[in-house]
Amino acid sequence: MENMIGIRRFRLEDLDRVEEIEKQSFKKIYPRFLLIHLYTNFPDGFIVAEIDGHIVGYIIGTIEWGNGHIISIAVDRKFRNRGIGSILIEYLEKYFFERCNVKYIVLEVRVSNKKARMFYYKRGYVDKRFLPKYYDDGEDAILMVKKRKDLKTNYPITISMW
Fold it and tell me: Is the pTM here over 0.70, yes or no?
């Protein structure tokens, strides 16, 4: 039988494990001080997934300009393709749309990261804007957006590019 996936808020003692998952997942990881800052400023948006008490993934989001903003999502490579990323993003989307009443959720993704882009497309995200040279290494990004289902009108989307 498949082990149950638990979802809970991040705790500071989880930081080393989150950094391990970041290192296996990204070319450049967020510095520790930024992860702590994101947690301190919006603790409800920093969520981890666990199996048998062991952290196997995380998602970080915040509210900016009235929109939900997914900053990072990653799953330990040994636990990928088991639906953990889907559980994490669905949890945060529900929080943003239902509890925070945002109209949109935005995120940035590397143009070259086709697997991540397909993951987001399957969940209703659409390309909104091309962001040239967005990343430190000069790679371009795509700003993707998901609109709340019951939203009848298109509202302007204000975003901060940090």
Answer: yes
